[in-house]
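Why should sequence recovery work at all? Because a backbone constrains its sequence more than one might expect. Tight turns favour small or flexible residues, buried strands favour hydrophobic ones, and helices have their own preferences. The token representation captures these environments compactly. In the example below, the structure is given first.
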């Protein structure tokens, strides 16, 4: 069952409780207690605090369903990605993205953006609502958005076994605009990547022509004991790369003090350097997102563009 991350207040229900529409409009003015996220749908302003862009968009999609705005429509592109839980990097449109099969696109109204779609547009039912298939969603986004935005989604869906590279390629018309970009993204996709941060880092490496590392390789000590798997390894350069930290620590804390986890990570890093003779470098989400930080860290370890 589709659920919103925050409660949605429908004007039809509020009016039925004796609250007139003018009162709702006043409450939704700038700085008011309510925010209108779609025609006829409101949320409490304080509930929006701390939500990710994907969570806010999910609330809008659920609101569109509750108000009937999705009747006769198929969720598409970023809206479909959000409901399929396909990770995206970068902006998500303010409007809910849909196609209406057999009709022209390019229209916007009441928070809904209607797009064009071919007759072979692939759909599935999700909780009874037509949604672009995972393959169709990735094909549409991969033709229109840069590698850094979409590689995490491609990697994640391949890793989860929810799609194949062949299915993604088949979902895009062979002579469609953006197909060369899509083909490059399909080629770059790798199910061995284990987090959006790792995928974003690899996209930066690809776009800046850095030598590509092996992913998630096991590292063992002198007695053959497993020290762990490393995110990236450049054997020919003697460098190991780890996407840090804060997300990984959040998964691993389970009640342990942050300092204890950080110390354990540092000990692991020293053990890996001792066992392999390689240099370990780390970077954060912001380093990869801004690109220059990651490029400088890798350059400091001797990883430079190949051309």
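From this structural description, the recovered sequence reads:
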């Amino acid at each position: 069952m589709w659920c919103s991350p925050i409660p949605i207040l429908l004007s039809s229900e509020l009016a039925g409780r004796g609250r007139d529409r003018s009162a709702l409009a006043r409450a939704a003015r700038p700085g008011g207690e309510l925010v209108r996220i779609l025609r006829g749908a409101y949320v409490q302003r304080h509930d929006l605090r701390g939500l990710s862009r994907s969570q806010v968009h999910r609330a809008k999609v659920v609101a569109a369903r509750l108000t009937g705005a999705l009747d006769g429509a198929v969720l598409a592109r970023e809206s479909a990605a959000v409901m399929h839980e396909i990770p995206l990097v970068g902006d998500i449109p303010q409007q809910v993205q849909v196609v209406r099969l057999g009709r022209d696109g390019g229209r916007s109204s009441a928070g809904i953006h209607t797009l064009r779609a071919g007759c072979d547009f692939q759909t599935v039912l999700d909780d009874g609502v037509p949604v672009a298939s995972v393959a169709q969603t990735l094909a549409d986004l991969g033709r229109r958005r840069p590698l850094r935005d979409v590689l995490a989604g491609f990697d994640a869906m391949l890793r989860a076994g929810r799609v194949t590279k062949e299915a993604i390629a088949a979902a895009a018309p062979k002579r469609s605009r953006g197909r060369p970009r899509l083909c490059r993204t399909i080629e770059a996709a790798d199910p061995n990547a284990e987090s959006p941060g790792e995928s974003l880092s690899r996209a930066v490496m690809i776009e800046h022509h850095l030598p590509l590392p092996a992913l998630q390789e096991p590292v063992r000590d002198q007695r053959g004991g497993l020290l762990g798997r490393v995110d990236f390894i450049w054997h020919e350069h003697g460098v190991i790369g780890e996407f840090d930290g804060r997300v990984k620590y959040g998964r691993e804390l389970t009640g342990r003090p942050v300092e204890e986890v950080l110390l354990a990570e540092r000990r692991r890093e020293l053990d890996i350097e001792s066992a392999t003779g390689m240099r370990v470098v780390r970077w954060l989400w912001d380093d990869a997102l801004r690109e220059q930080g990651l490029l400088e860290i890798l350059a400091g370890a001797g990883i430079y563009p190949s051309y």
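A few observations help interpret the result. The chain has 14 helices and 13 strands.
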